[in-house]
């Protein structure tokens, strides 16, 4: 593509330079190749405009910048370089990427999933249901990316638009017709999903999280709401919302330009769960649908996964699956890594690894565990920690949630990042102590997992919460390999 064709597609204030052939797009100067257009934009932690010279030295063919001073400097020092000045760097990145890559976003029906809890599982379920009827999909989410049958490492829950569109383009190349994406509040607010037309938008729930970034629950909600307003596009055709959640009800009222589909346990939900029966590794319930009642059976466990199944069912129905196809597909879904992941054991103790890292998610996880051990008077042992450099106000709340529902709490380190692990655990410990539940503090996570499992007897359930699918632990002095499920499996084998 020639820059003279590309630049007019931008909402640019100015542009200059003769036309040059552009073959790719980059926003990271380290990845620039000859022929790329380099989009220099201001970010949260760095300013890409500082790396324009580095990009040019690597062969960048053109520059798009959101800095007037950088644009003027190019005019003085490199007047031969084709350049455009834009007001919004991230929007420009999306516009340039879409144009250069041939607009793959227009060739995929996109289902976007947002909310505090359940995004990952719901996205996996939607993809699984779509694949069960033979559709080729792209998945972008927290755990991994999928391009057809290829699995890729996930760098971010919702990456920059250039990277999203590159995955979309790869998907189109292998025949994909559907895309499913988790859309985080950060990505929505930062406009990393600018210009992506959403066919179906799903809202799971909203509970306290990320207030270190958003500040207040209303600002956090406003970021999530952007998915239903359209981020540089028209609103989604369909909004699938949780009627049991107060913020979901608000979205249902506000999404006036979308067809609203509701789900939940409450009367009036179009996809409604009734008569739930569950055990470890299986959930059964009656699902009311616009076509009548059906019996759902899934290998996923728990009330939270009933919500996820309802949300995915509503989305799949709006993507053209029949109710019978949804029932058949739900029965075939696989285990989602780090989401109520049962670690194999033959000593009568159930060990579960889960990503629960908010007080609400922890409370739901423990409630499910309590329900599972009740028939044989088993105990619930909960291991958790709190992330460093994140919302501190939720730490005592997580401690209280763990203490209120558990028979024993093991408090440990999560990803302390730059904070002192002892200071983090002290804040969480205050919440546990307020409940009077016995708590063992062991900051070494490996040692804590061993303590929790060795404390369990046949019939008990051990919950290892907080990190889920993660394969590393982030410390002040670097990143180390750490896999909760692998460590738990090692301890069980020793026993």
Strand-residue fraction?
15-25%
- In whole angstroms, the N-to-C terminal distance is 63 Å
Contiguous low-pLDDT stretches (5 residues minimum) are none
Structural class: alpha/beta
DSSP E strands, number:
24
Q: What does this protein look like?
A:
This protein has 495 residues and is of the alpha/beta class. It has three domains: 3-100, 3-Layer(aba) Sandwich (Udp-n-acetylmuramoylalanyl-d-glutamate--2,6- Diaminopimelate Ligase, Chain: A, domain 1); 104-330, UDP-N-acetylmuramoyl-L-alanine:D-glutamate ligase, CATH 3.40.1190.10; 341-494, Protein-Tyrosine Phosphatase, Chain A (Alpha-Beta Complex). It is built from 17 helices and 24 strands. An eleven-stranded mixed beta sheet has the order 9-8-7-10-6-11-12-13-14-15-16, sandwiched between helices. It has a six-stranded mixed beta sheet with strand order 17-18-22-19-20-21, with helices on both faces. A five-stranded mixed beta sheet has the order 1-5-4-3-2, sandwiched between helices. Helix 10 (246-254) links the parallel strand 12 and strand 13 (259-264).
Question: Mind sketching the topology for me?
Answer:
Blueprint: H1 3-6, E1 12-16, E2 24-26, E3 36-40, H2 52-57, E4 62-65, H3 68-77, E5 82-86, H4 89-100, E6 109-114, H5 119-132, E7 137-140, E8 144-147, E9 150-153, H6 161-173, E10 178-182, H7 185-190, E11 198-203, H8 211-214, H9 217-229, E12 238-242, H10 246-254, E13 259-264, E14 271-279, E15 282-289, E16 292-298, H11 303-318, H12 323-330, E17 341-343, E18 350-354, H13 359-373, E19 380-384, H14 394-405, E20 408-411, H15 421-433, E21 439-441, H16 445-454, E22 461-465, E23 472-475, E24 478-481, H17 484-494
